[in-house]
Amino acid sequence: MTTLRQLRFLVAVADTLNFTRAAEICHVTQPTLSAGLKELEDHLGIIVAERSKRRVMLTQVGEELVRRARTVLTDVADMEAVARTQAGVGQADLRLGVIPTVGPFLIPRAMPMLRQVWPELRLFLREELTERLLEGLADGRLDLIIIALPYDTSSIETELLFEDGYQLATPIGHSLAGNPEVTGSLLAGAPLLLLEKGHCLQRHALEAYAEMRSPPGDAFAATSLPTLLSMVEEGLGITLLPQLAIDAGIVRGQSVSLTPLPTACPRKVVLGWRSTSPHAETFRRIADVFRTVRALMS
Fold it and tell me: Count of CB atoms within 10 A of residue 254's CB?
C-alpha cells in the first residue's frame, strides 16, 4: 500500500536530488528515507530514481509520480486545514511567498498590523521569483503568494491589493529629468536598465508603454532594485522604478532624479491562493490589511 509518508519522501528527493538533504527535510534518518522509497518502488514495481555515489536522477516514471504526489499531498493538506477550521483550531502558521520587488517594501510595514489582528499568527516568509512562487503554491509548499500581474496565474484565486505605477529614475542633469511630457517614444531611444531575466518587473517595465523595446541582448541586467538604482546614479543609464519602492524610501540618500510617469501602464499587485484552500475568507481579510498598509505609505 502506498502511504503519504512515502510520497513525502519521494517529493523531498525530487526537490533536493540528495538523499541526505531529503532525509533532513523529512526529519528522518537517511536509511529510513531510503527504505521508504524502496518499499514504494517494490510496491509499484518501478524505479523512481537512479542513485549513484555522486548523483540522484529521477526516472521518467519517477517524474510523473512526483507530479501526482504533489497533487495528493496538497489535497491532503487542504483537507486537514478544513478539519482544523471546522474544529475551531484555525491556521496559526502561514507560509507566504512574495516577489523581491514587493516583499522588502511592503511586508515589514504590514507585519505590525497583521500581528495586531492575528496575535497567534506565525508568518513564514519566502522571497522568490514569480514562477517559483506559483509552483510553491501548487505543490502546497506555500499557502499564499504576492505577485504582480499581468502573469499567467492559471486557476489560482487572486485578490487585487493595489496598482503600482512607475517613475523614471535618471542621473541628475539627464535630458529627461523633470520632463513632464516623457513618452514611450522618448524612452525607447534611451539606454534603459532593467532587472535580469526571470523578474516579472522586467517585462512589466517594458509594457509600461507600447513603444518600449527590450535593450540589446548584451545589455547589463541588475539582480535587484537597489543595484539598478546604483547603476543609474553612476550614469550608466535610466530605469523605471515602481512607486511602491519609491514610497518605501528606496531612493533616500541616492543622487538621482525622479520624474512621474502618469501615463505609464501600472502593474497590478495581487494576493493569490489555491482555489481549494478553506481559508479564503481569512486570506481576503489579510488582503485588506495589505491594502490599508499600502494606502498609508502613499
Answer: 14
The three cell numbers of residue 228 are: 539598478
Domain boundary among 85, 111, 135: 85
Chain centroid offset of residue 160 CA: 15
Q: What are phi and psi of 7, to 5 degrees?
A: -65, -40
Residue 273: give the domain boundaries. Answer: 91-163+267-297
The pTM for the full model equals 0.74
Q: Are 97 and 146 in contact (CB under 8 A)?
A: yes
Residues 175 and 239 in one domain: yes
Q: Total domain count for the chain?
A: 3
Q: What is the pLDDT of residues 211-254, one digit of tens each?
A: 777 666 555 678 889 999 999 999 998 999 999 999 999 999 88
CATH of the domain at 135: 3.40.190.10
Could you give the CA distance from residue 50 to residue 58 in angstroms, rounded to a whole number?
A: 6
What average pLDDT does this structure show over 25-39? 90
